[in-house]
């Protein structure tokens, strides 16, 4: 990139470089903006809130409890978002869920090196909203990470008519005073051309300006943020903002969002489309912009987990904390609410002169981005940016990144300029993205054959593979390509940002020699012990994975070797973050196939697994997605675990936030989805959706034993098609392997629990619909729901020691009476289970 072709300081001409001081409290002569009733109702104002000179704590929940775990942080994030929506930026409508794109034109640029497409998006109520975006991608390769830039109208798109600016806009005076009203301060001003990003009129010119982006392997997506909400302080006769009468705002009258939130909402609609565009890597999207667009980029990333944020010279209401703004003519809360209250929530105006009473500060936006990369791009000569305020925000947000072990992903970069967006900023942004998202669209590729692999099926290629993998990791990550061939390998270890790509026709076959699998500490049946490393192993790294469509065949050994150590599984990442497996086949003989342990952000999609033992064992992991997989096993197709006995309870590593969706699950003799029996650390927040289950025993089996403690919370299934002896079994007394030494948890603390079990829209062809009578009266199941079930069974329900039972719309043909201990329900001996029957506690048995 050359500075003359990339300098963007012209995009900021509408923002004065020196902020003017505003009154410390609202002027009594202000004409208020009419209130808009919004979903969050009314919350405390400044007079009801305490003074907090320090930045409000991220980890103190609304109920006063302390946030210490990632699960608690997930819940806390929603509290932060609600607070920011109410007080800071205004309340936005939910995603419309119906974004569609129609390509209007396509042309080459830069001599055929870049492809430009103009895409017309439609969405919203009755698909009545629209937005034109320009998508630039390198012509060869892909999919590409995308930089989303809020700017001017994309080349070839129609310029929309715009409202004039408010009579006092840009003059440094209170825009709520009577002079701002129609007729109060003279005619409204026309919009100067410099207020719009000076986007070149042709795709060729714009591609030429940003050529360095494409050379580094990124896509560029541009749209006019004023096509989402118009940046004007013009007011209507009733005092309301004129910007609410155009663009997206009229479609959602029950929301009080400001202009910046509307721009951020528009960026999310762009992301909705990009997720469907095969040329874009939607897992690597970067939102950026400068000044007011930088503010909205920060907001977009805080409210939309798909974005990495790179806001540029944001000033007040941006990265810097309000509480520490004020010196060097910075944009304070008072300045922003004097000049641009229309950008923010209407409730923010009440805090002028009382910033220490704000129940939030700007570091909350940054913390909400964790663990996604966030870089604040600042100018060291920018008069409206106070370095101390920026530093305070970043430092205060860093503990949220520390929860994920990713303090390195939040940073500040100072370039040598004033209030501008320059080539130096672009370079810093792309360098930061390369470091944390991979090397642009040109991920470095390492061919295993170039490192000596033969692929002849007889020569051991372990050393050649490992050299390729190590070179990839040491050089910052990329792809390790496996061309067609049969490769005989022992245990391999993947490094950070390293993805193994199995080309069509490639087969990795695990060596039959146990000496090719080094000894390490492994997790086995809920305990750490000595064992042999998995065939493909990773430990303590991020952004690693395997993509298809090749095949991996595990070693033929069973679970335990002649030395008593656990034998190798096929895939085994341990303590890794961001693990992605997609598109390949795994075959395994006598041991588990796939065993992620202590990992976070695991995605397993379009993977086919055949195994005589378990298919996927998820062991004390969080944020796991298993989607569109075909799994056929002799044991559990998918098993969720979290440790066993006193050891597992002491470590307290839960298995949580697991989605199993759109999978075809078949097992010969155990469960399609087994939850336990090692549940001492807890298994919670599990959703099983739209799956086909063919089981030799139970489709879903929640199992554990007295003495293992822990339990199961918030387990749900919906839209399941089940053929099995039993649809659901719950055994909390003696479920699972009894031969494993437990060191049990004694007394009442050792009784495992289950609560919030919910299943709906189930189609069954089973012998027993539900068997849940293996439950101790000392620890009953609390809240069990079974609704909307169709099909047939030989036996209906066996339930015992439950409270909060809900049954409804069970249209199942039953061939004999159901049994319940501890519950009474009138059921026919034959025919359908009657819907919505009343239940009550009892001690007798039917």
Oligomeric description of these chains: single chain
Helix content: 10-25%
Weakly predicted, low-confidence segments: 1-22, 193-197, 819-846
Distance between the termini: 80 Å
Structural class: alpha/beta
β-sheet strand percentage: 25-35%
- Average per-residue pLDDT, rounded, comes to 88
Cα-based radius of gyration, to the nearest Å: 30 Å
Based on DSSP secondary structure assignment, what is the total number of beta strands? 43
The total of helices stands at 12
Main sheet characteristics: 29 strands, mixed
Overall shape: globular
Please provide a written account of the structure.
By secondary structure, this protein is of the alpha/beta class. Helix content is 15%, strand content 35%. The protein has 12 helices and 43 strands. The strands form 4 sheets. The chain has a 29-stranded mixed sheet that branches. The longest helix is centred in the first third of the chain and has 20 residues. The radius of gyration is 30 Å and the shape is globular. The chain starts with a helix and ends with a strand.
């Amino acid at each position: 990139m050359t500075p003359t072709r990339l300098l963007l300081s012209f995009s900021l001409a509408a923002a004065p470089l020196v902020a003017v001081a505003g009154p410390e409290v609202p002027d009594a002569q202000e004409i208020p903006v009419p209130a808009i009733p919004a979903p969050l109702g009314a919350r405390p104002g400044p007079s009801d809130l305490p003074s907090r000179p320090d930045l409000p704590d991220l980890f103190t929940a609304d109920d006063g409890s302390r946030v210490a775990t990632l699960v608690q942080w997930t819940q806390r994030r929603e509290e932060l978002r609600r607070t920011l929506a109410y007080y800071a930026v205004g309340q936005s409508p939910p995603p419309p869920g119906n974004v569609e794109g129609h390509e209007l034109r396509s042309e080459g640029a830069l001599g055929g090196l870049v492809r430009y497409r103009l895409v017309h998006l439609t969405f919203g109520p009755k698909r009545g909203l629209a937005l034109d975006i320009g998508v630039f991608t390198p012509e060869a390769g892909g999919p590409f990470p995308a930089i989303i830039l809020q700017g001017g109208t994309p080349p070839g798109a129609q310029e929309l008519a715009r409202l004039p600016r408010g009579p006092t806009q840009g003059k440094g005076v209170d825009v709520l005073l009577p002079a701002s009203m129609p007729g109060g301060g003279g005619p409204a001003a026309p919009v100067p051309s410099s207020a719009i990003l000076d986007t070149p009129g042709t795709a060729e010119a714009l591609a030429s300006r940003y050529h360095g982006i494409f050379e580094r392997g990124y896509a560029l997506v541009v749209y006019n943020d004023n096509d989402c909400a118009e940046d004007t302080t013009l007011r209507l006769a009733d005092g309301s903002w004129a910007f609410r009468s155009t663009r997206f705002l009229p479609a959602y009258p029950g929301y009080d969002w400001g202009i910046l939130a509307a721009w951020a909402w528009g960026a999310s609609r762009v992301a909705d489309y990009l997720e469907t565009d095969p040329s874009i890597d939607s897992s690597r999207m970067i939102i950026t912009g400068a000044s007011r667009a930088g503010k909205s980029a920060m907001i977009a990333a805080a409210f939309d987990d798909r974005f990495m944020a790179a806001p540029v010279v944001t000033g007040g209401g941006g990265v810097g904390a309000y509480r520490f703004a004020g010196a060097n003519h910075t944009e304070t809360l008072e300045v922003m609410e004097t000049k641009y209250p229309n950008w923010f929530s209407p409730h923010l105006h009440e805090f002028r002169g009382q910033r220490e009473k704000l129940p939030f500060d700007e570091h909350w936006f940054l913390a909400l981005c964790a663990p996604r990369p966030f870089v604040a791009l600042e100018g060291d000569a920018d008069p409206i940016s106070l370095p101390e305020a920026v530093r305070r925000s970043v430092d205060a947000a860093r503990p949220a990144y520390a929860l994920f072990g990713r303090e390195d992903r939040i940073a500040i970069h100072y370039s040598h300029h004033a209030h501008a967006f320059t080539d130096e900023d672009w370079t810093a942004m792309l360098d930061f993205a390369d470091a944390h998202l991979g090397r642009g669209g040109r991920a470095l590729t390492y061919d295993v054959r170039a490192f000596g692999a033969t692929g002849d099926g007889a020569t051991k290629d372990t050393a050649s593979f490992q050299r390729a993998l190590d070179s990839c990791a040491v050089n910052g990550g990329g792809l390790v390509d496996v061309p067609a061939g049969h490769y005989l390998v022992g245990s391999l270890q993947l490094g950070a940002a390293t993805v193994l790509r199995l080309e069509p026709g490639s087969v990795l076959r695990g060596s039959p020699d146990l000496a090719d699998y080094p000894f390490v500490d492994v997790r086995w049946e809920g305990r750490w012990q000595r064992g042999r490393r998995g065939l493909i192993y990773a430990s303590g790294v991020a952004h690693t994975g395997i993509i298809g469509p090749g095949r991996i065949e595990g070693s033929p050994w069973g679970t335990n070797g002649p030395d008593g150590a656990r034998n190798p599984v096929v895939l085994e990442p341990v303590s890794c973050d961001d693990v992605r497996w997609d598109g390949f086949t795994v075959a395994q003989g006598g041991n588990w196939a796939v065993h992620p342990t202590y990992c976070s952000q695991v995605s397993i999609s379009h993977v086919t697994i055949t195994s005589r033992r378990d298919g996927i064992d998820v062991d004390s992991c969080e944020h796991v997605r298993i989607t569109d997989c075909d799994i056929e096993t002799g044991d559990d197709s998918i098993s969720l675990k979290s440790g066993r006995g006193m050891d597992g309870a002491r470590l307290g590593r839960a298995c949580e936030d697991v989605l199993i969706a759109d999978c075809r699950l078949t097992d010969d003799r155990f469960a399609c989805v087994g939850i336990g029996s090692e549940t001492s650390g807890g298994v919670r927040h599990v959703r099983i959706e739209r799956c086909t289950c063919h089981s030799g025993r139970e489709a879903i089996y929640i199992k554990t034993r007295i003495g293992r403690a822990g339990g199961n919370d918030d387990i749900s299934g919906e839209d399941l098609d089940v053929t099995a002896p039993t649809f659901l079994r719950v055994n909390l007394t003696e479920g699972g392997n009894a031969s494993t030494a437990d060191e049990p948890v004694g007394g009442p603390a050792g009784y495992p629990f289950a609560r919030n079990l919910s299943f709906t829209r189930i189609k069954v062809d089973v012998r027993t619909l539900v068997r849940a009578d293996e439950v101790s009266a000392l620890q009953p199941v609390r809240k069990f729901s079974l609704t909307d079930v169709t099909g047939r069974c030989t036996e209906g329900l066996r339930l015992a020691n439950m409270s909060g039972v809900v049954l409804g719309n069970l249209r199942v043909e039953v061939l004999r009476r159901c049994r319940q201990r501890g519950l009474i329900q009138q059921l026919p001996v034959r025919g359908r289970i009657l819907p919505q029957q009343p239940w009550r506690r009892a001690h007798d048995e039917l």
